[in-house]
Amino acid sequence: MSEFLQKYLKAREEKNSTLCIGLDPAMPGLRKENIMPDDDIMGFCLDIIDKTAPHACAFKANSQYILFNLNMEQLQELNQKIHGSGSISILDHKLSDIGSSNLAAIHSAKKAGFDAITFSPFAGNIKEAVNQCHSNGLGIFVLTLMSNPEARIQKEFSRSGENLYEWIAAEAKDADGLVVGLTENATSKEIQKIREIAGKDKILLCPGLGAQGGSTDKLPAGNSLVNVGRDIIYSKDPVKKASEFSQQLKLR
């Protein structure tokens, strides 16, 4: 059992939740639903964690929103806040480069205090990245069948009768988890196929619930983290929303 899987199981049990809250703090004007009144991204994130942590076992910080706005000390403070709440932290970085460049990012993510990082498989070096993450005490989630409509390429491309998402799932067999969307981009059959290839112990990190219209009905048995971002963090009552989503996941 990997170090990250142990952290996940501990947080899931203590929180009685599989909810992962996406920290996507858009600057004012970038999203119509954004209620952040100014450019205090750090304050916004800390406030969301304070309010919603009782209902979430994980927080996923999107690097597109935070890495250009927060320094290393702030990232460390952010992770201290997440860990202090009993949750785990994931850097949604979609890492994808050659080995030496990946290693530099992995080292920085670990220094910042993150427990895991997301990885895009299209550079092809999935196994190397998994080894690099684990050698540095970092979990890794491989993008397998994403929630956005454009990601249909991951199931439309095939070779020798094997779809691209199936190949990715097989190559990522030693990763901690796979990113699999719950939107109409993926069918229940396809998600179940991924689960069969990856195994029940792998964590399915599933975006798409909430604003993207995804459904938990597709979620197969086994370890999972269901990510909700906009519907919680931009809500007028994020505590209520986080509680509702957490309860929804318990009832499935």
Question: How is this structure best described in words?
Answer:
The chain starts with a helix and ends with a helix. Helices cover 42% and strands 18% of the residues. The model has no long low-confidence stretch (mean pLDDT 89). Helix 2 runs parallel beside helix 4 (72-84). With 252 residues, it is an alpha/beta fold. The chain has one domain (3-251): Aldolase class I (TIM Barrel). The strands form 2 sheets. The protein has an 8-stranded parallel barrel, surrounded by 8 helices. It has a two-stranded antiparallel ribbon with strand order 6-7. The protein has 11 helices and 10 strands. The protein has helices spanning 3-15, 41-52, 63-66, 72-84, 99-112, 126-135, 153-156, 164-171, 188-198, 230-233, 238-251; strands at residues 19-23, 58-62, 88-95, 116-119, 139-145, 158-159, 162-163, 177-180, 203-206, 224-228. Strand 3, helix 5 and strand 4 (116-119) form a beta-alpha-beta unit.
CATH secondary-structure class: Alpha Beta
How many separate domains make up the residues?
Answer: 1
- By CATH, the topology is TIM Barrel
Helix/strand order: HEHEHHEHEHEHEEHEHEEHH
Mean pLDDT over the full residue set: 89
End-to-end separation: 26 Å
Strand content: 15-25%
Radius of gyration equals: 17 Å
* Second-tier CATH architecture: Alpha-Beta Barrel
